[in-house]
Amino acid sequence: MIKSQTIEEIKSRMDIYEVVSDFVALKKSGSSYKALSPFTNEKTPSFMVSPAKGIFKCFSTGKGGDAITFLMEVDGLSYLEALKYLAQKYAIAIEEDEADPNYLAEQSIRESLFITLNFAKDHFVKNLWETNEGKSIGLSYYKERGFSEETIRRFDLGYSLDQWQGLMDAAKSAGYKDEFLEQTGLKIVKEDKAYDRFRGRVVFPIHNITGKVIAFGARTLKSNEKGPKYINSPETELYTKSKILYGIFQAKNEIRNQENCYLVEGYTDVVSLSQAGITNVVASSGTSLTEEQIKLIQRYTKNVTVLFDGDKAGIKASMRGIDMMLTGGLNVKAVPFPEGEDPDSYSKKLGGMAFKEYLDDNAQDFIAFKTGVFLKDGGDDPIKKAESIREIVHSISLIPDPIKRTVYIQECSRLLHVDEGTLISETNKLLLKSSKEKWEAPMPELPPEAYEPQQNETNVSRDEIIQVQERESIRMLLNYGAELIDGLEGDQMHLADYFMSESEDITFETPIYSQILEIFKTNLANGEVTSIKDFLDHNDPEIKRAAVDLSTDRYEISANWSEKFQINVAHESQTLKNSTYTNILRLKFRIIQKMIAENMENLKSASEEEQINKFLSIQGDLKSMEMTIAKILGNVTVK
């Protein structure tokens, strides 16, 4: 296990902005940063990062925490993996306590799978550079493709020996378990036989966003090989093909820096283009583009340039991917290649500089590209031309931004020599149809009781209101408890002390808020005031999660806005005592309202005169208290 001192050093060095920026394009928003959520496919930014507090908060999913939590959520890392990632990022040497003899066996399954895959990657790389078969077959193939040794090592390219159990035997000798070889797809078991999946093939490791190997692609070099030329790892706990892009780990920083992502089809396309100087390139690995892959690109840029192979069938098949990217709000360009050429072959034919120039000179907006493809295919046939126009208008209708749609309609009208009003009319028809389909989707059938009023509906709503007010009260305590305010006699006191004196007759019903309150009470009794950082670093994940939630504001008043309109809006931090008092008073008001409702129910069910008089007396006292608090709140009177 990593030593506690090392963990503390990692936590002290990690910067939430720097870590999140590796995965998400952040924009300044007041004292914080905002972005589109990396966890959902949203159109309006709801993801916030607060460098001052060292936390992130995703309002669309409710996820939040520090840099470690972010890595665990965004890339599915374990706590230990996240720490190791940060240690590597900040060049911190990892010191570990002496491992228990059973430590490796007790590691999580997930971590064991990562370790096994990394061993396999190292094994394939070693085969390539250190065995006669690897050098004569695998290395020769890569060099024939024009890959330099630097490029081969950058992508961890390797070779699997043409042996039935070469990897299995090596893994067994190194102490790796058969079950993990099978779970990662490295080993195939059929009936009573077991053998290596990738034997006799060159191997392309597939990395996740943080650089961990999660799967492999492999190509046979035998002309008489039965079966597919390329094979991939099966989907596992770590690898879902539709959620990963080949080369994303190597390309992510350049995609952000160049504000563009080149999208190709295969592994060799990525490797060749990277060597030619096009380092912001990824591949969909031969699959149709998916929403998850589009969302992965959106973390780094909104601009995509699709590099198509020269054959018509491939271009037509890729049109669906363009439509999906348009729906996702991406700006799409395309570069066609001459018949029979692909990005790999053409980059080698032209050379690095000339190929870059070709991409710059031939990148077309998707409208111009799609228009050229469909009109060329349709020729002078008016029916086919009309179908082509409908196809293009359909793509335009998918663009969520109305201004962009208008610009593309104008461009389409110019290219196709079709009246702009006609195109607008057709686009509006498609938008209306899409809207109707969305709103007229069949509702799920509900059980009869769902349509009947629930007896406890009023009580539930009161409880929820109380919970909201408890949240607001604890939020003030959590964020400002350590702040100093003026006491009754002009002396200064911590807000936490003032909070306790005003809320001593309240029992908080929400368990997590009650826990936070008790931590404050315990520490105050020991002469300590708990800070927000103590909760953000708390060992209890529930308390830590609540602290992130309570310390993050989704909206912040713009300083420019206030200055422009000469409006000064006081923040709660400027009126701590008043804001705290008001929140506690509102909570008391809601609690009294609930007590009034419960007492009224008791009064209704009372049958004896003594009971009736008792409940009437209680009701009078409660109503008097309710009116007093309402008057104070109404007059905005504060202590």
Write the layout of secondary structure elements.
Blueprint: H1 4-13, H2 16-21, E1 27-29, E2 32-35, E3 47-50, E4 55-58, E5 64-65, H3 67-75, H4 79-89, H5 103-106, H6 109-130, H7 132-144, H8 149-154, E6 158-160, H9 166-173, H10 178-183, E7 187-190, E8 193-196, E9 201-207, E10 213-220, E11 230-232, H11 248-258, E12 261-264, H12 267-275, E13 281-283, H13 291-298, E14 303-307, H14 312-327, E15 331-335, H15 343-350, H16 352-362, E16 364-365, H17 366-378, H18 382-397, H19 402-416, H20 420-439, H21 457-480, E17 484-486, E18 492-494, H22 495-503, H23 511-525, H24 532-536, H25 541-550, H26 559-565, H27 576-605, H28 609-634
Parallel strand pairs: 12-13, 12-14, 14-15
Antiparallel strand pairs: 1-2, 2-3, 3-4, 4-5, 6-9, 7-8, 9-10, 10-11, 15-16, 17-18
Summed up, what is this model?
With 639 residues, the protein is an alpha+beta fold. Helices cover 54% and strands 11% of the residues.
